[in-house]
């Protein structure tokens, strides 16, 4: 629908920012914390920086929260590092880890900022991985349950919005990139067993939240990439639907309906895959009724028909930050992704498509009728401080303006959206590109080559966002 006026946002709309523990905190072995798999994974991404220091948020959290408050933010989505709470298999809680998150949460609340907390954002403790074979072993389920119950009891009196598993679908689709496909030769079959175990952990997190957090609400955080058909050819339409199923919808259906959908069951049967669903598993999942969806959305994709006799081609992400280095996947008999001539792209070949945001919100609302909050959305680019001592990022301002406007249109369309938390508030460590791919509205003075002073420098986008936030989405600048 076309509207003859700018969109209006609800009076209680949460305007925020987003991060994850391993990408922002640093202090990876400080105050009792032990290493996670992502700590180790970042050390394989040379010449980019690893997360030893990241943005040094661990030592600058008060300054970061003050900058959030000065901008008028009313929410902050972050994650808790499991290995900061349980550093080893002794079963003893690390009090210094509890203290850090208590201090952060209290600082946020003191400044009128609502904490939105992710319990798991890729960073499995190394000791869990060694003891239970990562997500491959069912022993992780009880350990995860113990962990989430500990943090709910510690922080649930103040934290009422919780997120279970960050981008479970991306962990399965890109298991090699995120370091969870420990046995690559059998990953094609194993990933559905791994996925099922993660679903059981998600269920544990949801159930425990409702048991232990008075007034607590919890939802999953799928990574969402809307997928359009390449043409009006009916085969392309089915290909786009296949791509939606295999990268997103299978997971979202499980979260919302608490059972595996017919498409994935048929896929398992056709490919002789046993996801190892055991007695009692689906009964547990059936109890895990989510309250909302957290949604991470950066871009869109386009799909077309891929004949069964085509040769399979793996998705190769652009890791260089130089356009033209992304290789689209081909899945014979299902779909292939292709370039979309109607949208521009970033230096990493990610589509710049604000309409994808409205599409996603409409799609998820139409399918599940559950409230939604944007937990990630952002523009990564190469940046440095100008001679005037400032950071000028007009492309990020344009990106955020267009994306937020589309969120407003989705709200006008009738979608229930209660917050926007862009990735990211400060610059932080990119999943694959260190500090060279910057997302923040606040610049962090450090590089892949040098550990500098971590000075916080608000970018032009910070001041633009400040005006929009303080006007509740009316001052577009």
In terms of structural class, how would the helical and strand content be classed? alpha/beta
**Strand arrangement in the largest pleated sheet:** 5-4-3-2-1-14-13-7
**Count of helical regions:** 15
Residues in helix, %: 25-40%
- Please give the number of β-strands: 16
The overall average pLDDT, rounded, is 95
Rough outline = globular
- Span of the ends, CA to CA: 24 Å
Residue runs with pLDDT of under 50 for 5 or more positions: none
Biggest pleated-sheet summary: 8 strands, parallel
Rg of Cα set: 21 Å
Strand content: 5-15%
Oligomer: single chain
Highlighted features:
single chain, 4-stranded mixed sheet, 15 helices
Can you put this structure into words, describing what you see?
The chain is an alpha/beta fold and 477 residues long. The protein has helices at 21-24, 37-42, 57-70, 82-85, 95-110, 126-132, 139-155, 168-173, 187-212, 234-257, 262-270, 281-286, 355-368, 394-412, 460-470; strands at 14-18, 75-79, 114-120, 161-166, 217-221, 227-229, 293-296, 301-304, 330-331, 335-338, 344-345, 351-352, 372-376, 417-420, 442-444, 456-458. The two termini are 24 Å apart. The model has no long low-confidence stretch (mean pLDDT 95).
